[in-house]
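Predict the holo structure. Ligand: heme C.
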Amino acid sequence: MKPTGLIKIAALVSGTFVACLALAAESEEFDAAATYKASCYACHSTSQAHAPMLSDAIEWEIRLEKGMDILVQNTINGLNGVMPARGLCTSCSDDDLQAVVEYMVEQSQY
Ligand code: HEC
């Protein structure tokens, strides 16, 4: 991994760690990986409509520069007419969606 990647991860971790802890405590029942597979995988594993692929570390590194909060907001509201609002997971709460985005980002780092 490149050093800049490490720094970004460190920044991300420090920025979201507290939120993550609170989130984990709140939604223990929620399975981010399973939700990803059910709702997001169809687009995000194939780069359908140029969706950022899970394995694409550089693509996610660029998106992460916006900050985790913005990524989660764009997931909730949809983005550019191609990323559907809530990633089509109508049963997901905002916290659930944040957990899925965090899962996706984790899976996209080497
Ligand atoms: C119908 C296809 C589709 C589905 C389903 C989908 N996405 Fe996306 N997603 C996209 C596309 C396309 C983009 C790129 C949008 C752009 O940058 O213009 C995207 C972008 C994103 C981004 C980056 C947002 C940003 O600000 O750069 C996140 C985070 C994301 N999706 C999360 C999810 C999650 C979580 C789910 C499932 C709950 C999901 N997506 C389901 C197509 C999809």
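The chain has one domain: 3-107. The chain has a mean pLDDT of 84.
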